[in-house]
Design a protein that fits this description.
One of its GO terms (molecular function) is metal ion binding. About 35% of the residues lie in helices and about 20% in strands. The protein is α/β, with parallel strands linked by helices. It has one domain: Spore Coat Polysaccharide Biosynthesis Protein SpsA, Chain A. β7 and β8 form a beta hairpin. The protein is globular. The termini are far apart. The model has no long low-confidence stretch (mean pLDDT about 95). The protein binds guanosine-5'-triphosphate. Guanosine-5'-triphosphate binds next to β4 and α2.
């Protein structure tokens, strides 16, 4: 299976910074995600609009085919470029990936999509997508239906769920789904990182 990191967003809530390249521990946010994913996936793709920004990372760069159309266009380009049937897709602003949870997800059967359902919300940017979804996603993007969950609803997509109790077996604090959009989120994430590093040392 391949891993696909979406990094073509505008980071407009981050007031001038491109969030995947913000410092995070001894690397950057995306650096931490790439390193983690590389330990379980042989193929890691970064989908972006700017090839040069990410060329120092140990990942293949894929460019968006549809401009400024949100994460769904990144999912589209990533699935099109990937060489595997099933693909783990993740946002570039979720730096607390839990590898045991991801391994667990990879071991479940997937028809079109496998997505966690946590605190009443779906987490479509930490989910497994089959290449089978590609024509349905392309149709949605061409019709300018950019909401990820929207295309599942009207296009006969087989969605399976990972429930919160399953997630909590691996990640009781649900840090996996902490995503960073603002400076405040970033400060909070650095605090979590310090706490995690300290717990690891103790
Ligand atoms: N490849 C690709 N990824 C995208 C695109 N739009 C958003 N993403 C990614 O999707 C994920 C979630 O994006 P958001 O946080 O909703 O949007 P953002 O543009 O990054 O940030 P804001 O401008 O603050 O909303 C992030 O990993 C983004 O990099 C896009 O057009 N192409």
């Amino acid at each position: 299976m391949s891993a696909i990191i979406l990094a073509g967003g505008l980071s407009s809530r981050m007031e001038g910074a491109n969030k995947p390249l913000m410092e995070f521990g001894d690397t950057t946010m995306i650096g931490r995600i790439v390193d983690n994913l590389k330990s379980i996936f042989s193929e890691v793709l970064i989908v972006t609009k700017n090839q040069e920004l990410y060329q120092d990372y140990d990942a293949e760069i894929v460019l968006d085919k549809f401009e400024h159309q949100g994460p769904l266009s990144g999912i589209h380009a990533g699935l099109e470029a990937s060489r595997t049937e099933n693909n783990f897709i993740v946002s570039c602003d979720m730096p607390f990936l839990n590898l045991d949870l991801i391994r667990y997800m990879l071991n479940q059967s997937v028809e079109d999509i496998l997505v966690p359902r946590v605190e009443g919300h779906l987490e479509p940017l930490h989910a497994v997508y089959s290449k089978q979804c590609l024509p349905k996603i392309e149709k949605a993007v061409r019709r300018e239906k950019f909401k990820i969950i929207e295309f599942w609803e009207w296009d006969d997509v087989d969605v399976r769920y990972i429930e919160q109790t399953e997630v909590e077996r691996f990640d009781p604090n649900l840090y996996t789904f902490f995503n960073i959009n603002t400076r405040k989120d970033y400060r909070q994430a650095l605090e979590i990182l310090t706490k995690m590093n300290k717990e690891e040392l103790d």
